[in-house]
Amino acid sequence: MKKNLTLVTSAVALVLVGCTSLPSPQALDAETKALMKAGFRDQGIAKLDRIEQDLGQSACSSETPPADAVAEQIMAQAKAGVKWPAGGQYLGDWREGEKIAQNGRGMTWTDSSTATSANGGSCYNCHQLSKAEVSFGTIGPSLYNYGKNRGVSDVMAPTAQPIIEYTWTKIYNSKSYAACSNMPRFGHAKVLDDKQIAHVMSLLLDPKSPVNQ
Amino acid sequence: MKTTTLNLATLAVLAGTMVLTGTAWAQAKSAAEGIAEYRKMLEDGNPADLFEAKGEALWKQKRGPKNATLEQCNLGKGAGVVKGTFVELPRYFADTGKMQDLESRLVTCMETLQGFNAEEIGKTAFGRGEMANVTALATWVAAESRGLRFNLPQGHAEEQKSYEIGKRVFFYRGGPMDFSCASCHSVDGQRIRLQDLPNLTINPGDGVGFAAWPAYRVSNGQMWSMQLRLNDCYRQQRFPFPGFASEVTVALGTYMGVNAKGAQSIAPAIKR
Predict the structure, then answer these.
(1) Distance between alpha carbon B250 and the CA centroid of its chain, in Å?
(2) What is the pTM of this model?
């Protein structure tokens, strides 16, 4: 009888512990979203809508990557939204591309405009590009000799077209090839316009660009 | 006082030298080694000392509508105990029924003991008015735990929940560039440009990351509290503006602080 009483007491204690223990992961996810919305406010050009997540942002917001099917869906949506440049103008001037790669400005609440002209590409923040610039980040892979390593000796040659389209897609929407890529979606998110992307394309692919020396 | 002036002058010269020789210097050694050496040179002249002294004076001074000191403030280890509190924050406070970090707790004490308006302080810009005083107070309180190791309490259900929320906030992607805290701070040994990035999902080591702030920033000549550090991270993440001591920022502190368990505090540090 005493033993039974102890068992009952333990069972009650367990239930009580259960009540004060952590909410379910789903409940914590929901509470986090609510707290994110409550915890921020508009400041300058950085409005509260930046907290709203699309499928990719939401699915890539944890330590664990999304399920394969979700990742496929993110990549397919990204790829489908890539727009080729008007008149097939994939390439620009590598000198302008270098300036854009060096420029890490834009889109913060201390910037005055969301126009693409106010933004840089922040490329050197994460990537090595030309040999001359030693102040480069390492979050992304080195892009030194990007075009050379891919056998681009003439950007106008038809054989260069596949790598040109791949590179355009990667810059326009990096999630086309990796669902949770750390790289911003420069074209999709209107951080850079087609002309700016074309300049960066030349920095990466033009055999005369310092990237390929 | 003369010594301090001299040190500040030396600091300005050193900062100038650093800019001029930055490129060549970076090639010779890693950014981390260079910065460590630079910090060593400045050890006797960290301007954070000035903020630390100001904070100590503010703690003991009768101020506010109630003309009281902060000496009875409970930072988590009992009324009036300062030493050791910094390395155990954020934690749950039964009197407010909330998770609080150092800065939000100081503001609570300024309200209850001195009669200041907490909401008004929370809306004040960093470096201005009573917010500047909160930063100075936080600098002094942190300095009183210099050399101690982080050991945040996780016994209370709210403390465990704050960690779980903080982890989710840390990985929360958003904005035009899809960034989260994790974009830059979840892998060992990465850099932005030449700036080393601590991995804040683990204990990144003594005096690194959470164990370094508040810190004096040479680049803009300001004393930066943890709340300002987080605020500027979110600015660079291209997020909207995080509310001072909002639940998300306190939860981030819990997440980073618990992860830093065992790391020795060097706060207030000196930073680039």
Answers:
(1) 12
(2) 0.89
